[in-house]
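User: Hey, quick favor. My workstation is busy. Could you predict this chain's structure for me?
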Amino acid sequence: MNLFLYGTLRSSRLASAVAGRDMPSVPATLDGFEVWSVADEITPLIRPNADGVTEGAVWLDVPDDVALRLDLYEGTFGYRLAPVSVRTAEGGMLPAQVYLPPDGLEAGEAPWCYDKWSRYETFSVHAAEEVFHHAPPHTAESLRRSWPQILKRAWSFARAQDAPPPASDIRYAPKDGDLTIMQADPIRGQFFGFQSFKAHHRTFQDQRSDILTREIFIGMEAVMLLPYDAKRDAVLLVEQARMGPFVRGDQNPWTLEPVAGMVDALEAPEDAARREMREETGLQVDALERITSFYPSPGSTTDYFHAYVGACALPDAETWTGGLASENEDLRLHVLPFDTVMDLIDTGEINVGPLVLMLYWLARNRDRLRARA
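Assistant: No problem, here it is.
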């Protein structure tokens, strides 16, 4: 089988991640088709157009094992092979197959552009690498179920890679090779990820450490938003049952927390904070005050949290329920005076670390926020 590529697989990095090997290609064009963006996505959509000419490339004689990987990567989401004839750079015609999109997929408002997509290449490559580095190997059903979480993890990785160089005024500024993964096992898990690996690193004595066997919980970026009504000097807290305290054996696994949720793929943390506020409380944020971004437990998880205070007008009701039924959220919302909330830290009823951090930030900045309310 020859395969015509018109979209993201023209990236050699993504093609290698999907195929599991380097795949040589030759330039080609496909007459009678055009490529547009899928509505509200970065994905390309190829569709018939009698006057269209689609630039692309062809993989020649695709091996069976690569074809199986392609069928998982494309076929899981409804893309199906169709026969076409493509024109090579020499002008000859070549029989090939092309993945056509599923029926009903809506096109966006503009043609798809490879150069614009390339800013998301790292994100797309990381998602593909996870798809094919999972134990047990993904089936179409398990991949459909895990795909949203795979994309969120890939987006977190890409944001970390593309971020400006972090401050290293006091801590060590690492060089290439200072921390090396010697062996990485396949990722396990459906909703969250879990991976075992062996690594070693440069020590402060300029030696190499012993090989360390470690396990890491592969999470995502998340937002945490503390709603604050400066005029009333009141805070909104979210109460819900949590599995972590329950599995630990805590006698009360219902916790008090800020509004919180995962950052979706391609979403900015600020947008995620506003979205979570609407979904969990039904309220709007008037303005966001960034507190900080941080790793809650860097020795065991990739989780990375963005913390905000959200200026808003809180309702007169002291308690009501919220959350999305589609996400199995069962939330009770509490509006409490600021001083009462701070007392809950002292009694231990507030025992969630990020919330404690956010409340102490609010205590430090409260007079400023109230003065401009």
